Amino acid sequence: MNVHSFIEAEEQAGHSVTRACELLKVSRAAYYARRSGPSARTCDDAELTEKIRAVHARSRGTYGSPRVKAALNRDGTVCGRRRVARLMQQADLTGITRRRRQRTTIPDPKAAIRPDLVLRDFQPNPAGADTLWCGDITYIPTDEGWLYLATVIDIATRRVVGWATADHLRTSLVADALTTACRTRRPTQHVVFHSDRGCQYTSRELASLAGQLNVRLSVGRTGQCWDNALAESFFSTLKNELLSRQSWPTRAAAHTAIFEWIESWYNLYRLHSSLGYRSPADYETTLAA
């Protein structure tokens, strides 16, 4: 007996159709549409569209068809990306498109020369977390003025392991983010922290802190955005999926939204194509297994 036959039998027995649909995860609209005569394919599309809507809403309206398909597959619904794309278009559901961002790098020509220990290798690392980190600074406009955000991202898992905000671009901003990362993760061996050649990252102050934290500093080349591509990509995602979708009256409001997005969504649930459409938390669990 298929799902719709079972629900029909429950209805004939005087039981609640709504309850039967909820238990079998079938929408009432799809059930009645199929019962009234549309083709099985039409009814299947109606059911799948309901599931697509749920995934898209869960993603805060940000997922396009590749991530929606991946999320559906993870939930046990097997379907193709083209079909998902077609149904999303029919339902007027779209993902968020990335935009290019302006840079905040201010190089210091007198800074000490440091090596590039990453060499553009930002692939997830199955050897484990907390060996290679990267970070950068971006800015968020608010009605009170700029809010600056510094990040520390684990290259192996894409997890944001440390971050800080401030109303200035002094070295203490990146120092706070790096200190938070070390206190949160407590790496057991030397960890490399890669950045661009902004003056905050090449300062003596940060070098001194890195020595205390058992961190090796690495920097890319001046003017080469690909040398810190992962950090750039994260900011693009953050701005497209959160910050650019509304205005921010205060720095505190923007900080709170960033906290919720990183800690309650990005690190725990957002699917990453580079991780095989898994979240950073899920991928870390896989590494630890």
TrEMBL record:
<dbReference type="InterPro" id="IPR025948">
    <property type="entry name" value="HTH-like_dom"/>
</dbReference>
<dbReference type="Pfam" id="PF13333">
    <property type="entry name" value="rve_2"/>
</dbReference>
<dbReference type="InterPro" id="IPR048020">
    <property type="entry name" value="Transpos_IS3"/>
</dbReference>
<dbReference type="Pfam" id="PF13276">
    <property type="entry name" value="HTH_21"/>
</dbReference>
<feature type="domain" description="Integrase catalytic">
    <location>
        <begin position="122"/>
        <end position="288"/>
    </location>
</feature>
<dbReference type="InterPro" id="IPR036397">
    <property type="entry name" value="RNaseH_sf"/>
</dbReference>
<dbReference type="InterPro" id="IPR012337">
    <property type="entry name" value="RNaseH-like_sf"/>
</dbReference>
<protein>
    <submittedName>
        <fullName>Putative transposase</fullName>
    </submittedName>
</protein>
<dbReference type="InterPro" id="IPR001584">
    <property type="entry name" value="Integrase_cat-core"/>
</dbReference>
<dbReference type="Pfam" id="PF00665">
    <property type="entry name" value="rve"/>
</dbReference>
<dbReference type="GO" id="GO:0015074">
    <property type="term" value="P:DNA integration"/>
</dbReference>
<dbReference type="GO" id="GO:0003676">
    <property type="term" value="F:nucleic acid binding"/>
</dbReference>
<dbReference type="InterPro" id="IPR050900">
    <property type="entry name" value="Transposase_IS3/IS150/IS904"/>
</dbReference>
<comment type="function">
    <text>Involved in the transposition of the insertion sequence.</text>
</comment>
